[in-house]
Amino acid sequence: MSFSPEDRPAEPRPAAVDRSAPVSKGTLACLTLAQTAVFVAFVPLLNFLLPLKAEDVDPAGKVVLLSQAALWGGAACGLANIVFGSLSDATRSRFGRRRPWIALGLLLTLAAYAVIHGAETGLGLILGVVLFQVGLNAVFGPLVALLPDLVPDRQKGVASALLGTAQPTATLFTSLVVAILLSGSVWRFAVTGAAICLLLTPLLLWVREPAAPPSAGPRARFSLEALRSSDFRIAFVSRLLVQVAVAMNALYLLYYVQQSDPLIERFGVDSVDTVFGWLLAAWTATSMVAGIVGGVWSDRIERRKVFVVASGVLLAAGLLAMAAFPTWPGPLVGQALFGAGLGLYSTVDIALVAQILPRPERAGRDLGLINVANVLPQIAAPALGIVIFQANAGQSFILTYVAAALFALTGGGVIAVIKGVR
Fold this sequence. Notes:
Layout: H1 25-57, H2 62-90, H3 99-118, H4 122-150, H5 153-163, H6 166-181, H7 185-206, H8 230-258, H9 261-267, H10 272-301, H11 305-324, H12 330-355, H13 363-370, H14 372-391, H15 398-414
Helix pairs in contact: 1-2, 1-4, 1-6, 1-7, 1-8, 2-4, 2-13, 2-14, 3-4, 3-7, 4-13, 5-10, 5-12, 6-10, 8-10, 8-12, 8-14, 8-15, 10-12, 11-12, 11-15
């Protein structure tokens, strides 16, 4: 892998990919599996394994420790996403621009799993989460740039629908495999790590990257140039607000179940993991259906914004149900609505953002920038969580879910003012 000096004479390049040509089903499958690998890496960890580990390290201060680990990890995530996306734009190697960094990120992610599993102190756990976020974003930053690299606009909705199945699939893996089928920390971390490797292997071995566009500069640079576009700024704000809501639900759902008297009274304290698993399963099923339908339909009618606005309403409805109806089946209905909103948002927003990039040749850098909107919530959500939870004297997560609903509704609504996409 090499980085060319800016003043080196330009060398002849192979012709850039024809972005009007349809991408093959095999390539779409590899992209989908790789996207699923990313979500399998973090959904079980952040939703289930990390809360359990925080409880194991510090039973009395688990909420604060979990929030601190998420906060510092989020800070590392934001920097890493931009850095690795920009580096992949500028990389010239026989293996392509994106794949070398994805392979490095896979190794760092697996190393982080080992550190987190072996952590015996709060500091060790926090350092493990920071390493995890660096490694995961070395995968994710270059990976998301492959969508505009490879897929033409007329296929972006379908491609995004397939990519949108990654999160519900990872959630289903978490609920049925990690939470219910497996027991013991060693097996849970080991099986999750093996799944990540298997899912990333097809992309690393078989996907052919297009040549770098002739207009792409040879040096990796950090730039906020994309924020000059008003549509880009709106998409950034929308994703930021929605992801705060998503992060608050993901981070505290297990503790919500543990501290819900109605759920404990109905199912018993020994059934917490099972109840949590079924809530994730409900989230997964509706997310996958809504994501596929929304992505395909948005391509068919050539509209994106209406789906994003609707997703914010569904997310907010689900989160408010969690707050207002803690007795069964209120949480189940809440997570089902939440999943439908998340699937719809995740799928259509991917397609929408890919269409409004100011400079496609800088897709890695600009998608790294907009993915900061995925990252800042990982700092904001735990910070807000600490404040709200302590203001409520640690009694429940009702106020947490009300706040999350407001973020979701606002985030979905602001997308209506974008002008460059219908």
